[in-house]
């Protein structure tokens, strides 16, 4: 059985797009990168047959 998919928090996208606060933007980008890395790892572990 596949692990439940974690949804991206809308706040992460807002944080990543923040232009006034560089630290907040960096944290948002890092969180989104981590989420993407999780998705790739899950897909590699459980690829869908074609």
Overall description:
The protein is an all-alpha fold and 50 residues long. The protein has one domain (10-45). Helix content is 64%, strand content 0%. It is built from 2 helices and no strands. The protein has helices at residues 10-17, 22-45. Helix 1 (10-17) packs across helix 2 (22-45). The protein is elongated, with a radius of gyration of 14 Å. 4% of the residues are buried. The model has no long low-confidence stretch (mean pLDDT 84).
What distance separates the N and C termini? 18 Å
Shape, per Cα inertia axes: elongated
Percent of residues in helices comes to: 55-70%
> Residue-averaged pLDDT, rounded?
84
The unreliable regions are: none
Number of domains: 1
Largest sheet: none
How many strands in all?
Answer: 0
The SSE order reads HH
SS-based structural class? Answer: mainly alpha
Tally of helical runs:
2
- Strand coverage percent: under 5%
Radius of gyration: 14 Å
Annotation keywords:
mainly alpha, 2 helices, elongated, 50 residues, single chain, 64% helix
Précis, in short:
The chain has 50 residues and is mainly alpha-helical. It is 64% helix and 0% strand. The chain has one domain.
Topology, element by element:
Layout (H helix, E strand, L loop, with lengths): L9 H8 L4 H24 L5
């Amino acid at each position: 059985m596949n692990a439940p998919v974690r949804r991206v928090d809308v706040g992460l996208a807002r944080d990543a797009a923040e232009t006034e606060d560089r630290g907040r933007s960096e944290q948002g980008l890092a969180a989104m990168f981590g989420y993407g890395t999780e998705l790739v790892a899950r897909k590699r572990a459980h690829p869908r047959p074609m």
